[in-house]
Amino acid sequence: MADGVGTWNVLEWTQVTTPKHGLEKFLLEAEDVIVHKTGVVLLNTDEAGILAVTNFRLLFVSRASKCIIELGTIPLTTIEKITDDVKLTSVPRNSEKRELLQVIGKDMRVVTFAFLPKTMQRSAVMDVLKRYRKPVQLWELYAFQCDPSKFKNSNPKLRLLKEYYRFFGKRLLHLPEDESYIISNDRWRMTTINSNYTLCPTYPSVLVVPKSISDEELLQAASFRTSRRIPVISWCNPGSGAVLARSSQPRVGPFMSSRNHSDERLVAGLCSSSADSSASRRKLYIVDARPIANALANNVKGGGSESSSNYFKSEVVFLGIDNIHVMRESLSRLREYVDTHGTTSSDGTSSFLRNGGSTWGGGNLSSMSGSASTLGDTGWLTHVQNVLSGAAWIAARIALESASVLVHCSDGWDRTTQLVSLASLLLDPYYRTFKGFQALVDKDWLAFGHPFADRMGIPTVTDLATSTSTEMLTRQSSMGNASSSPLHSQSGSNLAGARGGTNHNQASDNISPILLQWVDCVFQLLRLYPCAFEFSSRFLVDFLDAVLSCRFGNFLCNCERERQQAGISEVCGCIWIYLSDLRAIGGRSHEHFNLFYDPSRHEGPILPPAAALAPTIWPQFHLRWACPSEAHASEFESMWRTMNKKYSETSKAKELAESKAKDLESKTESLSEELRKEKQKSSSALATVNRVRRENLAIKRAVQSLGCRVNLSTNQSHTSSDLMASTYSDDPSDRSPHDLSVSISAIEDAGVVSGGNPLSRVCESMCPFRTKDGCKWPNEQCAQLGSQFVGLKADFGAFENLSIDDQYFHS
């Protein structure tokens, strides 16, 4: 499929730059092609292409589409089994003479490749797969060949301590160099007695225990528990004081005759109301995850289960969950059932057409075990239901009765981890968020030592004793991180962990889908309570794929101590950063987010009734290879996600439009304010002009009354009438400056005689002082003005030189 490239290249991995095989654009950072063959056919889809084996995965590229086919591309550590002994009951077209290779994955896929006969293609691929699928040394894994800086791993110890601090209602921002981070309250305390992993090699370095129990008592109790896994607190309710604790089985021996007083005091401390040993105690449930017959059988080996008579106010309950071997076989039958009854099986034939359609189902690849005729025959859903029911029962005891619960199985790292982490998920809504889910897995699965290396069949640090120091130094030098990895300083030394080294046969016997089964249980709860979880089913699928691929260092080795010895956090990338970056690319519309998440609806514990715990097959994981169309999210969810994406885009567009509208409104208000101020200025200027005009007219009349003429002139060519019109114009656009000059001169006699001034005509006809030479005023008397002005000498030269630059016309 075309989007297969995006599955691993979403984050724009560094591409290989040296062209060698024509597959360079499909390769990841530090991924090298070891062998590749052309003309190979993927029988499941009857598609031809190039099959390559790299140091990370089996890679199949379609010849027609030139894209990665996701079904035929599988990480090497995800492969559970390969075989060339394949016989098909229904042989596809053109495949009769081809050589077949079957690949069975831990992720429910069964694929079959057909090679050209007599070409040694199949043999070459088989040899490389056998060598690289199960590497001898831990550092041969692809995770050690990548640059960890892109997905920088934070300190696992700091992540665990942050979760412990949350129990105490406090926050921890950084890890102090000393032990000042150790805190306590009136019920519990943190202890570093296991800082060197001497108390229990498979426990974390920091533990939470009852405050009433001393470190000396913890050491004494360790000898009474298998693998020294003493009862410690995994989760606590700050309000009620009830705790969820975990341990391994007690070493009571035959007839349950052995006792340990320190262990009994430690267990009793789990149900105390305070550090005062005399205080009242709550009820304690001791939950043994095993069938009772298995627990009794362990008595012969020195193990067994507690006697309620030896533990105050306790009740022992058996849940009947089967062991890792039963779970492995159950998943194998489920995988076969899905392949047999899928849309297109690994032999390329639809289940509807197999055996001529005479029966439902039918035969499949003869190399596999006998086919399960019904889904119920696989037993998988029954096992999932048992785990769900057990976890729901534990959560109900803590939430409804405020009782404390101690959970264990045989070793305390498989069924115990499933039950404790699932019950915590039900009790604490924080664990149903992205951050909380990470904290839960880091604490109960990684810190408390679920043996991931054994369960996935990969090497761990216990195998490093067989490697030479030269090989390790050469490998680390090529990686450029030899000095930073503890492997460098400990090369050549025996780094044996708590679990002894195992050969490949023993390792295969220890492989089991314990984590896969737990994630399946989480999906069932997500299906029942779709509004309670921040993450989606797709997130769980991608999480499982990343774990099974061993591409990141988080889930390598068997415990915290081994990962610290191998320097995993310094030299390998972090799965949580990878998943977080994926979500960051798509934002809230990314498919990892649950569209129906509403934390307000489930703010407290969720306690599913037994009748509701009827699991179904997980389509997105179990059916994605055999029934790809049916494996996709339901049509309703797809439509909802599409609508939600459109709504998100529309909301962003609306916010942008509203922002622009606010900006325009702000600008409009600003312009309106400026216009209002301009109008005020214009009105004020007009009033001033009118006032000045009236004053000037009055002055002009007064000057004329003295018998003088007022002349206006500028440096521009304007007539006197034009100038006056322009000067007193109301048009605000006419703001050109005028160098205005005003001159005053006496009216000549000729002007008086010939002019049209009525005053002059009166003087001519009535003035008794007028002579034939004209008016002699002001040297002589004037009948109009009276004799008081006789002898007045006007300084006409000053009037003629008078120039007025009217400041009003410049405003």
From TrEMBL:
Name the domain of life: Eukaryota
UniProt xrefs under SUPFAM superfamilies: (Phosphotyrosine protein) phosphatases II, PH domain-like
Q: Which InterPro entries match?
A: Myotubularin, Myotubularin-like_Pase_dom, PH-like_dom_sf, Prot-tyrosine_phosphatase-like, Tyr_Pase_AS
User: What molecular function terms (GO) are annotated for this protein?
Assistant: phosphatidylinositol-3,5-bisphosphate phosphatase activity; phosphatidylinositol-3-phosphate phosphatase activity
PROSITE patterns linked? PPASE_MYOTUBULARIN, TYR_PHOSPHATASE_1
Looking at the record, the residues that make up the Myotubularin phosphatase domain are 168-622
Annotated region (Disordered) at 475-502, 655-686, 719-738
Q: Which Pfam families match?
A: Myotub-related (PF06602)
- Coiled-coil-forming residues are none
Where is there biased composition of kind Polar residues? Answer: 475-494, 719-730
Q: Where does substrate bind?
A: N298, N299, V300, K301, N323, I324, C409, S410, D411, G412, W413, D414, R415
* BP GO terms, sorted: phosphatidylinositol dephosphorylation
> Record's GO cellular component, any one?
cytoplasm
The positions flagged as active site in the entry are C409 (phosphocysteine intermediate)
Instruction: Point to the regions of Basic and acidic residues compositional bias.
Output: 655-681
Name the protein family.
Answer: Belongs to the protein-tyrosine phosphatase family. Non-receptor class myotubularin subfamily.
Q: Would you tell me the protein name for this molecule? A: Myotubularin
Q: Which organism is it from?
A: Rhynchospora pubera
The major lineage groups are: Eukaryota, Viridiplantae, Streptophyta, Embryophyta, Tracheophyta
